């Protein structure tokens, strides 16, 4: 499981925001994901994690960099070649209310994916396949004739997952798949994703801001800040021994549902807000909020280096 | 300690096209002076409607307060004329809303929004109110308050807007602060800043707090006592320790088990609560949770259980507890 199945190298996505200003949403990120692995991507809103997910699946055209799926550079593919690759990589979206067409039945929403890739030889076959898929994610076959508004948030997210599964992908980008759901429903969806992965061997990029869910879900975790990856490690290592000061602050900021742990905990409270990605600080992007920043941090951008075997961080003092 | 707020048998409904949504169904609780009480529950459980009813912010119609009373410092609020209610709002009870992006007036400067309440309720002069507004912004940790005071909400980031909201809510030293999901729209590092701020302010001013949230982590951090709501009813109350260490209602237990612990591995599956909450247009005849409950018995479907007292502070509304009294057999209370 050690060789790279998905390989991201020097990926950048810049947006033009007028007046010759450029927003560097994703600014030179690199990582790999092995087959069957789950890589968690965490960070606060505006750090570029969703843009990264969308650029990897080429919903956005990358500004530069390479995204390869089992050795083939996806960013170089023509439109028709890309379609074939879309069968291999799919996406599950954050908002189960906005990502399903309200005027289509569930049969057509899922069937459309089969049609586009020519996976259903006949109407009867198409219907049977949709019903099979619905049962796979814990919905009823009879649900196929209904419309999205007849379902709750958790059920809609299951439909979004079914649509991604329909084309039998290998790699799935999950962009905050549970953040719009109630706590008691979140666990249902997480268990479903893990169960599907065990049965079908999916590779996941799991994007979220809920650190305890990411830790639970992922084999390795990458932490993003202002368009860059600041730390990447196996999930236990990251949570047990965070090296980057931002990771430390992020971990200490999560309130734990345990009154005794909460009382004992020393919380690192960062001052200030996230700087604007249009005008990021010089040197280290985190230095304006970092409790241990020095003059060197303003002048020199820290390299992303291996601080312990398998644990990478970009901080001069990590 | 004095009781600041006493809510008794409150029921609130909304008349909508499909029928009557019974959002709050017979809720009773009290908040003592200086106490921080959390109301937890998922969306649609009635926690926000309860808070808005206390402040009389429910628009009628479609809303309708069907029964009950809300006494604040001995005074009944539900029958108060609107004019007098305005004196209570902002002055004696402050409120922080969930969404800092939409709950400030975009056409007024931040300073003016803080000064408005001070001039109206405390009859301060314009210059005194301005001085106090600068003090308040300093207190909630906004840098350069002197220049920030003349800026508009769109100049502020999300965290700063929420700080400004807190400054407004605290401007008249309210005896009770209601915070409705105050940090849900914010990132964790900003959330940590806001929670620390609220905690410090409570220590300094001795305000009572009602904190409405779905995040049990925040409850563990901030509150003394917890009220758990489900399908418009209170199903369990207790001190923070009782609720986290010894929850008795199957819903409370389920909620705590469905969260991953930081030391939990992927091979230990989460224990979700199956199913979805009931439709409150046709609320269940019996216990609201019974269709999702693993221990549901026949009686659960037909009759709403009364509260069982487990200690001076912990109460639970579940038939499993009542059966311990003897007549209705069946075990499972210890599960």
UniProtKB/TrEMBL annotation, chain A:
<dbReference type="InterPro" id="IPR027417">
    <property type="entry name" value="P-loop_NTPase"/>
</dbReference>
<dbReference type="InterPro" id="IPR013563">
    <property type="entry name" value="Oligopep_ABC_C"/>
</dbReference>
<comment type="similarity">
    <text>Belongs to the ABC transporter superfamily.</text>
</comment>
<feature type="domain" description="ABC transporter">
    <location>
        <begin position="6"/>
        <end position="251"/>
    </location>
</feature>
<protein>
    <submittedName>
        <fullName>ATP-binding cassette domain-containing protein</fullName>
    </submittedName>
</protein>
<keyword id="KW-0813">Transport</keyword>
<dbReference type="Pfam" id="PF00005">
    <property type="entry name" value="ABC_tran"/>
</dbReference>
<dbReference type="GO" id="GO:0016887">
    <property type="term" value="F:ATP hydrolysis activity"/>
</dbReference>
<dbReference type="InterPro" id="IPR003593">
    <property type="entry name" value="AAA+_ATPase"/>
</dbReference>
<dbReference type="InterPro" id="IPR050319">
    <property type="entry name" value="ABC_transp_ATP-bind"/>
</dbReference>
<dbReference type="Pfam" id="PF08352">
    <property type="entry name" value="oligo_HPY"/>
</dbReference>
<dbReference type="GO" id="GO:0015833">
    <property type="term" value="P:peptide transport"/>
</dbReference>
<dbReference type="GO" id="GO:0005524">
    <property type="term" value="F:ATP binding"/>
</dbReference>
<keyword id="KW-0067">ATP-binding</keyword>
<dbReference type="InterPro" id="IPR003439">
    <property type="entry name" value="ABC_transporter-like_ATP-bd"/>
</dbReference>
<keyword id="KW-0547">Nucleotide-binding</keyword>
<dbReference type="GO" id="GO:0055085">
    <property type="term" value="P:transmembrane transport"/>
</dbReference>
UniProtKB/TrEMBL annotation, chain B:
<feature type="domain" description="ABC transporter">
    <location>
        <begin position="5"/>
        <end position="256"/>
    </location>
</feature>
<dbReference type="InterPro" id="IPR003593">
    <property type="entry name" value="AAA+_ATPase"/>
</dbReference>
<keyword id="KW-0547">Nucleotide-binding</keyword>
<keyword id="KW-1003">Cell membrane</keyword>
<dbReference type="InterPro" id="IPR027417">
    <property type="entry name" value="P-loop_NTPase"/>
</dbReference>
<dbReference type="InterPro" id="IPR017871">
    <property type="entry name" value="ABC_transporter-like_CS"/>
</dbReference>
<dbReference type="GO" id="GO:0015833">
    <property type="term" value="P:peptide transport"/>
</dbReference>
<dbReference type="GO" id="GO:0005524">
    <property type="term" value="F:ATP binding"/>
</dbReference>
<dbReference type="Pfam" id="PF00005">
    <property type="entry name" value="ABC_tran"/>
</dbReference>
<keyword id="KW-0067">ATP-binding</keyword>
<dbReference type="GO" id="GO:0016887">
    <property type="term" value="F:ATP hydrolysis activity"/>
</dbReference>
<dbReference type="InterPro" id="IPR050388">
    <property type="entry name" value="ABC_Ni/Peptide_Import"/>
</dbReference>
<keyword id="KW-0472">Membrane</keyword>
<protein>
    <submittedName>
        <fullName>ABC transporter ATP-binding protein</fullName>
    </submittedName>
</protein>
<keyword id="KW-0813">Transport</keyword>
<comment type="similarity">
    <text>Belongs to the ABC transporter superfamily.</text>
</comment>
<dbReference type="Pfam" id="PF08352">
    <property type="entry name" value="oligo_HPY"/>
</dbReference>
<dbReference type="GO" id="GO:0005886">
    <property type="term" value="C:plasma membrane"/>
</dbReference>
<dbReference type="InterPro" id="IPR013563">
    <property type="entry name" value="Oligopep_ABC_C"/>
</dbReference>
<dbReference type="InterPro" id="IPR003439">
    <property type="entry name" value="ABC_transporter-like_ATP-bd"/>
</dbReference>
